[in-house]
Design goal:
- It is a single chain.
- With 602 residues, the chain is α+β, with helices and mostly antiparallel strands.
- The protein folds into 5 domains: 179 residues, 3-Layer(aba) Sandwich (Rossmann fold); 85 residues, Translation factors (Elongation Factor Tu (Ef-tu), domain 3, Beta Barrel); 71 residues, Alpha-Beta Plaits, CATH 3.30.70; 109 residues, Alpha-Beta Plaits (2-Layer Sandwich); 111 residues, Alpha-Beta Plaits.
- It contains 14 helices and 31 strands.
- An 8-stranded antiparallel β-sheet has the order 11-10-16-7-8-15-12-13. Strands 2-3-1-4-5-6 form a 6-stranded mixed β-sheet, sandwiched between helices.
- The longest helix is centred in the C-terminal third of the chain and has 21 residues.
- The two termini are 56 Å apart.
Length: 602
C-alpha cells in the first residue's frame, strides 16, 4: 500500500446526463486498467438498465494508478455516485468518503438543479471542489456562459475551471495533474483504532456480501475480527482488497485507502450504508457522523399477472433484496388480483428500476398498483395516530379526525421563457412558492413547498414537456402538513375493486375519479350487458362512465310482420340482459391497471 500522502480520494458530482460516467470511462482508460479491445462505454455501470437509460443507479469505486510529473506513483480512488435525486443518501455517503470532488458542468446546459444541491452536499463535508466544464467539443457549447455561471451561481473561481471533452479525451491529462496537485491527501493514522465508513456494498452469489469501505484510521488485515457499530454484529475478515474494475486481493488496506472486505455476511440488509466499521478487540470511541436509516417514501403493491407465479415472484424479490437493501416488501393480498407484495421504494425512479429488473432479469409479468405515499392519520376519541400507505387500510371516515401528508421543498431551475407555464403547473399541484431567484438574465430558480403525492403521477413528465427538457428538478423531503384526505373507490358493476382504490386530496378527487373511469371505459372489453364504472367517496358517487352492451340482433329473423312480434322479442332480450347483469362478473385486463397509472397526455 502506498503512503497516505500519495493517495487521492475523489468523486465526480453532476446533474443527470452531464457526462459523469463518460468522464469516468476516460480516466479508467488513461489509468490503463482496461485494454482498448475489452473496453465498453459506461464501464462502471454493470446493469443493462443503466446503459440503456444513461444513468447510474448503483455507485461504484475504482482505484487508478497514476505516475505524476513529479515522478511519484499516486493511487487515485474514484468513487462514482448516482446522479438521481432518489439516491441522495448514497451520494452523501460516497461524498463523505472523499477529500475532493470534480464538479462537472455541461458546457451546453450550464449549472442545473442537482449541480447546486450536490455542490452544497460536498461543501457540507468540507471537500475541495474542482470545477470541470465538459462537452467543450459540441457545437452548442458556450464556455464563457458556463464560466460565468460557475462564478455567479456556485461562487467558485472559474479561472481554475478545467476544460475537458470526456467523449474525445481532451484535457484528461491536465485533469489528472489537477487531482494530484489540488485535492489534499487523506489525514488519519494507520496505527490508531480502526474507523472505516461503509459507502456501498454488493452481493456476490459465491462469496456473500462485498462491503465497500473508506478507511479513516487504522488498518484492516485478513483474519481480523471487525464490528459494525450500528447493530453491534461481529465478523471475521476473510479477504481484503482494492477495486481495479475486478476485485484485487491485497494483504491489508490502511488509513486513507478505499477498498473492500469480504467477511461471510449473508445478506445485504445486514450491512447498512453509512455505518462505521471498527475492530472488535480495540474499538474506536465514537462512530463517524451522518449515519441514518434509509426510509422508503413511495409505496406500491406488486401482483403476478398469473396467480400461479406467486412463488416465483417471491423468490425474485428475495434475490433482488440481496442486491438492494433499500427495497422493503411484505405480503399483501387483493380480492381482485390475489396474493402479492406491498413494497416501499426510495422514489419513482427506484420503482421503475425494480419493475424493469423483475421483468428482464427474472422474466416476471407483474402488475403494479398506483403508487402512494405514507400518510399520518389522527383518529377520534384519542385513538392516537396511525401511518397509512395502503388505501385498503384507511379507516372509516367517521373514525378519522384529520390527516397529514409528507411534503417536499422542490427546487426548479428553468430558462425564463418557460417560467409562467411551470408556475401554473406547480400551482395546479398545490405548490406554494417560497423563493424565486434570477440566476442571470436567462435563467431563474424557483422554490416551492408542495405535497410529495402530487409529484408521483405526472409532474416530472409534464415539467420536461413544458420546458422542452431544459428545466431541472430537485427536491428534499421537509416533513408532514395537514391535508384533506379521502379514499377514492372505483366500483365495477357496483362492486369495489380494491386494487384500484387510491388515497387522494379531496379537492382533486373528482378529476382523478373521472380520469380513472374514462381510462377503464376504454380498456374493459364489452360484455352482453351494460357495465357501470363509478368513482365513489364513501357512499357518494362522484364520477361515472358506462361500457355499452354488445347487442345481439334478435330481429334479424323477422321479415316484416306485426310490430308486436318484434316488441315481444326485444322485451325478452331486455329481461335476459337484466338477469345477466345481476350475476355477471367483469374481467379486468392487465392493460386496465397500467392505463390508470399513465399520465394525462399519453
Amino acid at each position: 500500500m502506498p503512503k497516505s500522502e500519495y493517495i487521492r480520494n475523489f468523486c465526480i458530482i453532476a446533474h443527470i446526463d452531464h457526462g459523469k460516467s463518460t468522464l469516468a470511462d476516460r480516466l479508467i482508460q488513461k489509468g490503463g486498467l482496461v485494454e482498448d479491445r475489452n473496453f465498453q462505454d459506461q464501464i462502471l455501470d454493470n446493469m443493462d438498465i443503466e446503459r440503456e437509460r444513461g444513468i447510474t443507479i448503483k455507485s461504484q469505486a475504482v482505484t487508478l494508478p497514476y505516475k505524476a510529473k513529479d515522478g511519484h506513483e499516486y493511487e487515485l480512488n474514484l468513487v462514482d455516485t448516482p446522479g438521481h435525486v432518489d439516491f441522495t443518501y448514497e451520494v452523501s455517503r460516497a461524498i463523505s468518503s472523499c477529500e475532493g470532488a470534480l464538479l462537472l458542468v455541461d458546457a451546453t446546459q450550464g449549472v442545473q438543479a442537482q449541480t447546486l444541491s450536490n455542490m452544497y452536499l460536498a461543501l457540507e463535508h468540507d471537500l475541495s471542489i474542482l470545477p470541470v466544464i465538459n462537452k467543450i467539443d459540441m457545437q452548442a457549447a458556450d464556455i464563457p456562459a458556463a464560466k460565468q455561471q460557475i462564478d455567479h451561481d456556485l461562487g467558485l473561481d472559474s479561472d481554475g475551471a478545467l476544460l475537458v471533452s470526456a467523449k474525445r479525451g481532451t484535457g484528461v491529462d491536465e485533469l489528472f495533474e489537477a487531482i494530484v496537485s489540488r485535492i489534499p491527501a487523506p489525514k488519519g493514522s494507520s496505527s490508531a483504532s480502526l474507523r472505516a465508513l461503509i459507502f456501498d456494498c454488493h452481493y456476490d452469489p459465491y462469496r456473500g456480501v462485498v462491503v465497500h469501505l473508506r478507511i479513516f484510521d487504522g488498518t484492516i488485515t485478513r483474519g481480523m475480527r471487525i464490528r459494525f457499530m450500528s447493530n453491534g454484529s461481529e465478523y471475521d475478515v476473510e479477504t481484503v482488497g482494492v477495486f481495479k474494475l475486478a476485485l484485487v486481493e491485497t494483504a491489508e488496506i490502511s488509513s486513507g485507502s478505499v477498498g473492500y472486505v469480504i467477511a461471510g455476511i449473508k445478506t445485504v440488509s445486514d450491512v447498512r450504508v453509512g455505518d462505521t466499521v471498527t475492530g472488535a478487540v480495540n474499538p474506536c470511541e465514537r462512530p463517524l457522523p451522518g449515519f441514518r436509516e434509509v426510509k422508503p417514501v413511495v409505496f406500491s403493491s406488486i401482483y403476478p399477472v398469473d396467480s400461479n407465479d406467486y412463488e416465483e415472484l417471491k423468490s425474485s424479490l428475495e434475490k433482488l433484496k440481496l442486491n438492494d437493501a433499500s427495497l422493503i416488501y411484505e405480503k399483501d393480498s387483493s380480492a381482485a388480483l390475489g396474493f402479492g407484495f406491498r413494497c416501499g421504494f426510495l422514489g419513482l425512479l427506484h420503482l421503475e428500476v425494480i419493475q424493469e429488473r423483475l421483468e428482464r432479469e427474472f422474466d416476471q409479468s407483474v402488475i403494479f398498483t398506483a403508487p402512494s405515499v405514507k400518510y399520518k392519520v389522527r383518529l377520534r376519541n384519542d385513538g392516537g395516530e396511525i401511518f397509512v400507505d395502503n388505501p385498503t387500510e384507511y379507516p372509516d371516515e367517521g373514525r378519522v379526525e384529520g390527516a397529514e401528508e409528507p411534503c417536499i421543498r422542490a427546487s426548479i431551475i428553468t430558462p425564463t421563457q418557460f417560467l409562467g407555464n411551470i408556475m401554473t403547473l406547480c400551482m395546479e399541484k398545490r405548490g406554494v412558492q417560497t423563493n424565486m431567484t434570477y440566476l442571470d438574465e436567462k435563467r431563474v430558480e424557483i422554490v416551492y413547498d408542495m405535497p410529495l403525492a402530487e409529484v408521483l403521477f405526472d409532474f416530472y413528465d409534464r415539467l420536461k414537456s413544458i420546458s422542452r427538457g431544459y428545466a431541472s428538478f430537485d427536491y428534499d423531503i421537509t416533513g408532514y402538513k395537514n391535508t384533506e384526505l379521502v379514499k377514492l373507490d372505483i366500483l365495477l358493476n357496483g362492486k369495489a375493486v380494491d386494487a384500484l382504490s387510491q388515497l387522494v386530496f379531496r379537492g382533486s378527487a373528482y378529476d382523478r375519479a373521472r380520469m380513472v373511469c374514462e381510462r377503464l371505459r376504454d380498456e374493459i372489453p364489452r360484455q352482453q350487458f351494460k357495465i357501470p364504472i363509478q368513482g365513489a367517496m364513501g357512499s357518494q358517487i362522484i364520477a361515472r362512465e358506462t361500457v355499452n352492451a354488445l347487442r345481439k340482433d334478435v330481429l334479424a329473423k323477422c321479415y316484416g310482420g306485426d310490430i308486436t312480434r318484434k316488441r315481444k322479442l326485444l322485451e325478452k332480450q331486455k329481461e335476459g340482459k337484466k338477469r345477466m347483469r345481476m350475476v355477471g362478473d367483469v374481467e379486468l385486463p392487465q392493460s386496465a391497471f397500467l392505463a390508470v397509472l399513465k399520465t394525462k397526455n399519453e
